[in-house]
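The aim of this short unit is practical: by the end, you should be able to scan a pair of folded records and say something sensible about each. We start with the first protein, listed as its amino acid sequence and then its structure tokens.
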Amino acid sequence: MAASAASRRGSQPDGGVAEGQREADVELPAEAGDRVQYDVSLPQPFRDAVLLLRARLPNGGVARLEFQGMAHTALSLSSRTDLHVVPVSVGVVPPGTHRLELVSLGGAPLDLDGFVLCEAADKEAVAFRQTVWNGTAELATGPVPNSLRLRYEQFSGIEYGLLWDATIHHQVREFHADELDRFMRRTVHNHVSGVLRDRWAASAPERHFANVFLRPIGLAPQSRRVLYGLVCCGDADLVERRLSARDLDPGICKGVYERARRRVVCMQGNTNGRQYAFSQERMAATVLTNVVYPVYTKGTYIRHNTPGRWWDSLYTWDSGFIGLGLLELDAERAIDCLNAYLTKPGDPHAAFIHHGSPVPVQFYLFLEIWNRRPERVLTEYFYPRLRQYYAFLSGQHGSSTTRLLASGLLKTWDYFYNSGGWDDYPPQVHVHRNGLQACTTPVVTTAHCIRIAKILKAMALALGKSADVREYEQDVELFAEALQSYAWDAASGYFGYVVHGEDGHAAEILRHESGANYNRGLDGAYPLVAGICTPEQEERLLAYLASPERHWTPIGLSTVDRSAPYYREDGYWNGAVWMPHQWFFWKTCLDLGHGEFAWQIAQTALGVWRREVEASYNCYEHFIVATGRGAGWHHFGGLSAPVLSWYGAYYRPGRLTAGCDVWVESIEVERDARALEADLRTFGQVGRTLQVIVSLDPGYAYTARWNGEACEVQLLHPGVYNVGLPCAERGTLDVAAV
């Protein structure tokens, strides 16, 4: 049974999707109280209705259910692991909309495939017929020697056609495997077999793939060769005509090729950025090509960007960073990536698309898209969707369980084991090992909710929604007070995980067996990102981040304070430097007016990335503090994507980059990137100065003015400046060549 669409994954019985409770592909016992609710609309009355429930118990055992609403009865299902039908008497039902609830009374895991409501006299006429799909194509030679036709038994009237360069030696091969990516890695050495079968996954559902294997293509030194191919689909006559008539006409193919080349993103930076070109192009290619299909979500199949093609599934926080990477390459794809994780306002099933760590990067992605393309239609479309997402994450919507504790601090353990994406982060590991999920809160979730409430406030101001603005301001005040009251640990200088008592009230900071605050790591510094620290807290935490004895290393920010007693050198996150959280603290440094430290974070990351990619040609997940080398998946386009953001901010002329306390109302950059004018609204504390990065043509010196008055500027390298702006103002920034 499922508590909510956002909190439980669906099980998949043969041939479809069922409501169930599954975690990491292991069935869990159905907890008493879990429920599923349906609204059933009946145009006509029933005199003697019966509910035919189709279900199975995948692990056997006994499941006990109670029916409420339309039906009032209890039921036990036992032993049967196959899909079977169980009748439930309902009786007289008038026309109209009726609510039906199925409540778990505890017991074995249950897959609910669905139900049919009919007259009792007609129940024998109800039958379920399983369609056995034949996914293996019939391969047939096309009208020319270098062509192939693929026909499918249950795909009536439609076929596919393939055409390739006749001058290249080739072999047509077939793969019978569940997942081609994994299977091909195991069979890449097989250059002989025409049919390859996955004998390592005999129990997995078999899929069929056809492959035109082009034999090695020789190239002389310093030479170039372009090969063309054609894929078409249609009825048999159409495919026949296209394969025979086109025959890869050079004039037509060259035109298609040239048009595609014109759409390729230009990664060329300014003079100082040329040193990073190779490593940036590798990252760009990885982000753009890590696409998988099909991925199933909300009743349909979608094309999907993935951190690596090893994982053909949804990842909420990874995909936020994929979107940020795509924004540097293709803004439309970045918008599509954002939209894939948001749902329509009022969606009855999910407030947003969640899988993995519930870190709300989608809000930051929207802000980056907006500040690059301030088009009102974007805010009007995305605001209600992001508002719904925020309401669930902050515990104010639907079945959300994030805000059950009296302290007001947030936790997301009910939805995923990982609070901030950092799998082996020490206090998080301790919480799970000791069963403290119900009573312990991290810092990162509440801190992010504060920051995304501020982003929503900026959106609401732009749309004139004054009531919503006040609501966000109140949330920020409440969450900030909770962190300051319960999570701040003055002795260590970090915010800590908070352990609550049985009454839900905050009791104490979670501590290591040594007595040290268990949260001496980036989670403990996240109120900086939220922008709610006192001057003293801010000074201490920034000092920790910059300290070579604590967080700062030759390759960037260590996830865990290296002076902590639980720091280790062989962890996945503990002992490693990752790009995503560095991106958040880089943005934060701009908001706090520490542009030099922001520059240091970005420069270090770009240098580390460059050295590793040039040495290995790989795009890794993370970097080991002890060695400085890359590790993890080698073709990773997710959490490593911030290197594209840093390169774009500091080395691509014609750019304005800000933290999270700047809302761009309009921006205009001269075509030759020698001047920039932007209307901005700044947030933050009155009297403070934040910084933005301006990158223009490196051949000139520049001056900057805010509402006509000279700004404080810091030259980073030719054409690139940190520009200081007053917080909590609205005005125009003009940057022009001297």
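Turning to the second protein, read its sequence before its tokens, just as you did above.
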Amino acid sequence: MTEKKFYNLTVAEAIELLNSNADSGISQQEAKKRLLEFGPNQLREKKDAGPLAIFFEQFQDFIVWVLIGAALVSGFLQEWVDALAIIAIVILNAILGFIQEFRAEKSLAALKKLSSPTSKIIRDGQHNIIFSEELVPGDLIELEAGDNVPADSRLIWHTSNFSVQEASLTGESTPVIKTSLALGKSLPAGRQAVPLADRANMVYMGTSVASGKARAMVCETGMQTELGKIAGMVQEVKEEATPLQKKLEQFGKWIVYLCFVLVGLVFLLERLRGGKIIDVFLTAVSLAVAAIPEGLPAVVTIALALGVHRMVKRHALIRRLPSVETLGCATVICSDKTGTLTKNEMTVQAVYAAGRLFKVSGIGYEPKGEFLLDDKTVKPDDYPELKQVLNIGVLCNGAQLVEGGSAYKVFGDPTEASLLTVAAKAGILKQDKEREFSFVDEIPFDSERKTMTVIRKDKDRLIAFVKGAPDVLLNACSEIEEAGVKRQLASGDKGMILKVNDELAKEALRVLAVAYRVLDRSSPDAQGSGEAKDIEKELTFVGLIAMIDPAREEVKEAIVECKEAGIKTVMITGDHKNTAVAIARSLGFFKEDSLALTGEELDRLNDNDFYGKIQKIPVYARVSPEHKLRIVRAWRRRGEIVAMTGDGVNDAPAVKEADIGVAMGITGTDVTKEVSDMVITDDNFASIVAAVEEGRGIYDNIKKFVHYLLSCNAGEILVMFVSSLIGLPVPLLPIHILWVNLVTDGLPALALGVDPVNPGIMKQPPRPTNEAVVTRQRAFLMLAQGAFIAICSLLAFTFVLFIEKEGIERARTAAFIVLSCSQLFHSFNCRSMSESLFKLGVFTNKKLILATVVSFFLQMAAVYLPFAQKVFKTEALGFFDWVLVIAISSLPLWAMEIVKLVNKRKLFLKGL
């Protein structure tokens, strides 16, 4: 199809060429055939490294080549056992590293798949949402403001203000107004091609809708799109390390420098004592390997990726890994009201028309319920003013309410769906009204105007049906209709209507006003100008519709959790001030001394006045996107870490400005999702709080395994350093150090990386953004714990050698086992530096128990298997030796439990 220039064709010709239908699209069966023929609608990406490449990457580290060099030297000196043992450990270490990296790659790939974009389509005449990669030529797609265009498509219908931001493809900075007319019909003679930027009837993959709505038919997908032709330019983008990974990399360099100094001292001390050059060299190399936490980057990646997977189960999809770290620092959550703090399950409860307030029964989207006036059931047919309000609610509406088995399914905005439901209760159906009033044009709702208009044709008349915020819409009205009679709208009428609006809003009801205007065919506004300012004026007011959107039950608990966690909750909504305050008060974050501001009131405050009051303002109503941006900047100016939610295209600047931009997964536009750090898949405030909890937990777990790895490595170095310093025989052979490093550094560290979130983590204040992963206090504790592990190993060694007067090999075996097992016991310490293990629950991290059991049996294999005894130069221990070894190995655990018990007031270990 690439040789066809769809912009030269009329709508009918393009549809015929694509063998599709302008109303029903293609069938599901045909879509499957075309997907096989054209392939998925995605750009070819740089191929990820395969398993073999990841495995061989494990041998590229300098330290691995040092080990291989040591094995070659051992082999040259005919120390075959040592040489083979070192090679075996290098290979085992590579396998462990491969498993870690491969798992991390798979986790990240799975996360990427989860964030795949979706498209709204019509197939077999049915509305649906599918993954964009499943689009095929001939598919009928629906687009609206904020959507990313998923494939190159020919416009077949659009509202008059439909425009597309094409800067990413053409460089044009301003949105381009589109048309559905064929361009080729008006081309100069001999000219058949139109530059990309001038193809006004086409929309292209990689661009986004700036305003309006449209239907388009997919022409090209995947690599056949215009973006696909230049895809090679964007396929070499490298993954950026997170700030935490960069901090740890920098910290790791200092650890390496310090370790090399200590290793060098050990080397010199052993040489001065007359040690053989090869033995001293192997010991130094082994210590260097043990000291450097080479598995740290992979474990960090796995911890982040697995933590993000846990977040997905709690309805939070992280788009950028650095935001996981920022989540733990969040101090303010600025949230929209509708659908986030509330259920977004609108039900109309009252209709005001001609001075009468009608109550409506029934809940949800099932059109069952009654109309009541003064608590008596009435028939809508007896009240033409009521039916007129309901008619406008149906005719100025872009939603669909479809009966689907046991429940009604909503396509479109829930507010609009509630208007269809209440009308259906009165016997007014959208499909019937649309046959009577044919569609002409639409001016979609936007947060600036706070209104929506649909122009329809009734016989020889054009009528603009309008709905919107009562205070805004009343200003555009010059007349009022009562019982089919129009008259001038007096100031007294306005006062009464606004009073009713306020009373309804105080009951936490969301209120919409409806109006209409018969357009004069001779005026410019009836000639297709489609400008809101020309149409939304001199309107006739008809009535108010009040609906309830109840607060989510789980949100109240989440807000209490935020308060305990030191996080402020702020509501920002376009709704009426009274409605917003009523909801905030019911949720418990609007107190007696709290303030609520409208956008208009906010405009009257200068920056300094606003800055001084901001901490007392938990509610903002009737705000525009510019107000949202100002609120975020004011909070950030105070040094707060701000999470901001958004769904509309105009929310994107504030979402991008926030430290943590949160897009809504259900109602959010593609543009907002693109600039966000996180997408909440159920649009629920409680899910944001759950994500903060998980973010804190992930960071906490990273600190746990960093602490574990470094304290254990310190213990391994100090065993050798102290023994050399005080003149003891060498307590461990190089092969012992390498083996302990392999057995203890891998599985337990990974298990700590997935430790369950501490139940009290949301009762702690937010973490400062500049806090180091390893503070001075933590570094001192790690060193102390490493020293204690070293003392335990040396204690076992000296007891067996000097008290029991056993041979050196038996003493080394005892030290070997104690060094390994004491680190395994110590892994349970690292679950918390302040809470007792028994309070946390010994069995609450089953993965850690499994990791320690596997590591213990690997250690036993090195001691008891006959061939291993020759390699490791170990001896089987007797019963009394085992009692001694286990008792000494467990000392780091019991010592830390005593420290925690003494430290109940958290004076020494505060913040760890």
